[in-house]
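Escalation from tier 1.

The customer reports that the assembly of two entities below gives different structure tokens on two consecutive runs. Tier 1 could not reproduce it. I'm attaching the input and our single run for tier 2 to review.
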Amino acid sequence: MRQWFRIAFPKDYSDRQNRAGFLFVLPALLFFGSVFILPLAQSIMYSFYKIAPGGASQFVGLRLYEKVLTDSTFWTAVQNTIQLVLFSVPTTVICALAVALGLNRITNLKWRNVWAAMYFLPFATSLVAAALIWQWIYEPVYGFLNYALSFVGIPPQKWLQSLFQVRPAIAAVSVWVRIGFDTMIFLAALQSIPEQYYEAARIDGANAVQQLRHITLPLLNPQILMVCILELIFNFKIFDQVYATTQGGPASASQTVIMLLYDTAFKFFRFGDASVMAVFVFITLLVVTLLQWRIFRKPVEY
Amino acid sequence: MQRGGWRMLVILAAVLVAVTIPDSSFAQQKKLVFWTHWEQNPDFNKWYETKGKEFAKKTGYEVELVTIPYQGYEAKYLAAFMAKSGAPDMFMGMANQWCGQYDFCDKMPADLEKVYDENLPKYMIPIGKWKGVRYGIPIEHGNFQQMYINVDMFKKAGLNPDKPPKTMNEWLAAMKKLTIADPKGGEPTQVGFAIRSKGHPVGITDKFLPFAHAWDARLLSPDLDKATGYANSPQMVAALTFFGNLVLKDKVASLAFGNPEDAFGQKRAAVIFRESWFFGWLKKNAPDVNFKVYALPCEKTCPGAGALFPWTDLVYKNSPNKQMAWEFYKFISNAKDDMEHHQSQGILPVWTVNLDTAYVKSRPDYQSTKDMLAQPVPPTYFHPKSNELATAFGEAVVGVLFGKGQPKPLLDDAAARMDRILKD
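Tier 1 run:
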């Protein structure tokens, strides 16, 4: 309390410095508080209320949790989301790592930048625009993909209209969009690994695979972990691509948790139920992220 | 920080606040904002603005039209209504939803209510009312599906376009003749029926309703309080089996054809079931399609003139301009404007006196509309939770179309879900 008072009414140079620091941080704090903390707190509160927009709210305790968590539609959406995550995250991370390793070997800086920019371009594209482009690519009758596959004798596929192909198809869009961003992170990390480590390894007779396994991957561990966490969060919260392409169809095969949350809140106006889903997503992501951090984080130094 | 620096900071903050928080009352002064999501009818929507200019000469209030994209429109409406700022003064919507499920509508003044009760066709009187109170102005006569056929494709298939199928079995036989299968076993190159299979299940439920009603099935009990025994009745199972077989067994419709209106307009599908507005859409987007419109075929009974979406023009209860909004509605509530407004987009007018005018008689759906209205009146489902109920039911319909399961278990599941929604 005294400290706050001294920040408000500084007496000496040190107090003024503290006040300046506090004022610098204040806009970020206000932004984070109003955009993240406040809605989160509101969501948690709403999850205990049956809310009628424009009308009265009624406290219902844990009833909405019981309702949502026993609803098969919700668990189908969770299952779809997990499948999307399982399709997307490992593929994106592995492909991005492979691309970064390739780019790192290009010694001509100009060409390396050109290739890097090409991989990064999809990330700079609007997700909805990317989804619409892919919708055309996946079109069963006139789509580019089926046309291309016809040259190698593969019959037309239904892609976004198939109960079984829709999730991998959407996951491929996510991989295409995200690969550039992850590649940049890996590339920056690769460039910070001292060349001497590789020289020493080569002198000791290590081949390329051994160098990758014992030098590159351990030293990239923090970046791999970070990318995995970011990809997990991105893919678990997937919405734009699904909304723009399938709207959760066909027959709910691509209905994700966030899509269901959106429909529940803004089509059926059940804010309480939607808040329960939001709390579920928040807790799930928090727990999985902490677990990942705990299990996979291995500080490496040579 | 120096005193001068503080002053600058305060001034900067004040300017920022002034710039980022505009005075909404100033922004909406002398203007009535109208929201619609009927994006397929731009001329119809534009008419409000045109008429608003005439209205402004009398009152000083113009009309500003805002077209909200149909996909996700509910979210935008709801956010605005709840926030109370930035909300429209007038909007298009369903009375059972916005006035029934929520209390966002202003009650229609008695004198205007009298005008509509006296001038609407009898079957439209309940549209725009909730619990006997009128809130909205019905805007769409012929808001029920009719059968649009491509005359040239009928002739080419050896069918007489002047003798449309009258029963569902006759209709299915015609669809088979109109379908051209892919010899390689892929998707057909031409289908008989343009089926709605994509998008939100609410729309799919709406498109399936004529089949359900033709088999004498209904979604909910007459009191709209029970689904089990209705949504999963043997009649409904039979209707959904027939509907699913169009894709799965008979293969006269294809899920790969995308938007059904486009498929019909591109002459890839010979038949579509659509409402009266589709006539205007075809004239504008596919003027080379030679088509005729007929009443829907019957099975156990005839489907009749029914729909899930009773669209009306409403007034937002918390609008500071609501009196003026009603004045505007009064200004356009006459037979002449009704005709001019609907004719601008090729939609059927709603006033009874306009239903036998030269314009209406010249339309290809004149007789079919009369025929549909002569059929038994089908059930209506103007329930406050109609969106959610239709979604639960639509999941069963798309489930069958995409081969997710058999009609009976999927309908049982849907009915149980609908009952939970009704009880909640």
